[in-house]
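Please produce the structure of this protein holding iron/sulfur cluster.
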Amino acid sequence: MDRLKVATVWLGGCAGCHMSFLDLDEFLIELAGKIELVYSPVVDVKEYPENVDVCLIEGAVCNEDNLEILHKIRARTKVLVSFGDCAVTGNVPALRNKLGLHNVENILQRAYVENAQNNPAIPKADGIVPRLLERVTPVHEAVSVEYFLPGCPPPADRIKALMTQVLGGKEPKLEGANLKFG
Ligand code: SF4
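Below is the modeled complex.
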């Protein structure tokens, strides 16, 4: 049987959701025998491949790079999972949406000038530094998503429950016993 092609992606998040994925411990060994990890922050693949079966997306959509890769991921993936509260609701990165008019300028000024200890200067969005979007959005506002895995971060047991169902060819149901952990 072909192994399931799985990807994980890190958009505007703190990497905590990926840390929780690594907390799967010995289940990672079982997973390694059943999936092919084709793209992830933990593998050195530069281009998101075609024909991916499942992709876990950590983080909110914060800048133009996030948006561009998200559209590519959607076009090349059968099942997208919004992975963690930043992907599901916007969560921490979306706090900046409340800062009012000229949001992007306010954020850059605060981060790179007011809070800078050395060389205060706003970096230019020049192809290396991506341009921030005016508004941070959850993933499903940018592309359609099949499943939502909430939590900040989602506990490893819940990730395991989802992956077990996906690997078993079942429709994931994260309810009842699957929501109990610890
Ligand atoms: Fe980090 Fe929580 Fe966002 Fe995951 S949901 S990226 S752990 S802040």
